[in-house]
């Protein structure tokens, strides 16, 4: 009897603290078989091992994680081994590298009070720099590079689902997110729309504590003479573009709608655009990145 061979294999690695565990857990929830911290020397044995009795579909995809903590880890050896596996033509192999900015990694280690695995007796920054150097060849070589610096755990899960949930040709996964320009652009946005031309509820002292989810704020914004036409044109553009993205094989699209602080105009317009897309037959997920931020006059005056 021949050994079971998964249709798809995904190698997941990246910076410690960038979200590898979250990514692997999400893949497991999607039905992938997941193995973490697998020494490269054991990969052939894993691929040649039949699934356990009662495991069900033996063709389910396989994700295996490794990083600098994995025994015998060597970036060049990983590249050579994956190259040989691809050349054999037996497996459909993809690679995912999870990256994250150094300052954000230091913050995460500080908040969790964990020590960096490469700097157990030194500052986390030393370990982060050393690990980035070790992993540099893989970051350059891998198919998918996902920067998690500005992503919450939920947003990372959404991105993983968008990339790896379905087979090629499946419907494009759509995220509509609001954000504040004062806090930076979303890193993974595909389309960005700026709502700062609309009247700003922040300067109404009754509306300032509210958000774009409140009806009073929505009514105030909708009174702007440019509002109706702008929202209609954005919705129409997306209805035209999304089917074309799908035909081109784009697995996920993130539509980012911004205002100054990310609490009023962008939130309301994102909800309106998402509702129009639902009525047109799409299934967007909606996220509001900066909804919980505090309103500040100084920020609003800068934009």
Write a structural description.
- The protein is α/β, with parallel strands linked by helices and 303 residues long.
- The protein has helices at 20-29, 43-47, 75-88, 102-112, 124-141, 153-164, 215-222, 227-247, 265-279, 297-302, and strands at 8-14, 33-36, 62-65, 92-99, 144-147, 173-180, 191-194, 252-259, 285-288.
- The strands form two sheets. The chain has a five-stranded parallel β-sheet with strand order 2-3-1-4-5, sandwiched between helices.
- The longest helix is centred in the last third of the chain and has 21 residues, at 227-247.
- The N and C termini lie far apart (67 Å).
Give a topology summary:
Elements: E1 8-14, H1 20-29, E2 33-36, H2 43-47, E3 62-65, H3 75-88, E4 92-99, H4 102-112, H5 124-141, E5 144-147, H6 153-164, E6 173-180, E7 191-194, H7 215-222, H8 227-247, E8 252-259, H9 265-279, E9 285-288, H10 297-302
Parallel strand pairs: 1-3, 1-4, 2-3, 4-5, 6-8, 6-9, 7-8
Helix pairs in contact: 1-6, 3-5, 4-5, 8-9
């Amino acid at each position: 009897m021949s050994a079971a061979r998964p249709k798809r294999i995904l190698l997941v690695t990246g910076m410690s603290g960038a979200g590898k565990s979250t990514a692997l857990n999400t893949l497991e929830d999607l039905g992938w078989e997941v193995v973490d911290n697998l020494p490269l020397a054991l990969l052939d044995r894993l691929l040649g091992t039949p699934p356990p009795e009662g495991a069900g579909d033996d063709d389910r995809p396989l994700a295996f994680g490794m990083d600098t903590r994995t025994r015998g880890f060597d970036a060049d050896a990983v590249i050579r081994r994956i190259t040989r596996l691809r050349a054999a033509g037996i497996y459909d192999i993809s690679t995912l590298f999870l990256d994250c900015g150094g300052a954000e990694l230091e913050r995460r280690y500080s908040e969790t009070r964990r020590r960096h695995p490469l700097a157990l007796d030194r500052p986390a920054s030393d370990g982060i720099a050393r690990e980035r150097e070790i992993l540099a060849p893989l970051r350059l070589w891998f198919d998918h590079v996902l920067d998690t610096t500005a992503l919450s755990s939920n947003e990372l899960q959404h991105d993983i689902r968008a990339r790896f949930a379905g087979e090629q040709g499946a419907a494009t996964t759509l995220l509509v997110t609001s954000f504040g320009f004062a806090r930076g652009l979303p890193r993974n946005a595909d389309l960005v729309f700026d709502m700062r031309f609309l009247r700003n509820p922040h300067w109404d002292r009754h509306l300032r504590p509210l958000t774009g989810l409140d009806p009073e704020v929505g009514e105030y914004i909708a009174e702007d003479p440019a509002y109706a036409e702008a929202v209609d044109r954005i919705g129409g553009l997306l209805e035209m573009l999304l089917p074309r993205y799908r035909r081109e094989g784009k697995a996920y699209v993130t539509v980012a709608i911004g205002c100054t602080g990310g609490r009023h105009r962008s939130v309301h317009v994102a909800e309106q655009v998402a509702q129009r897309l639902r009525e047109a037959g799409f299934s967007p997920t909606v996220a509001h990145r900066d909804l919980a931020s505090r309103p500040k006059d100084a920020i609003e005056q800068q934009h």
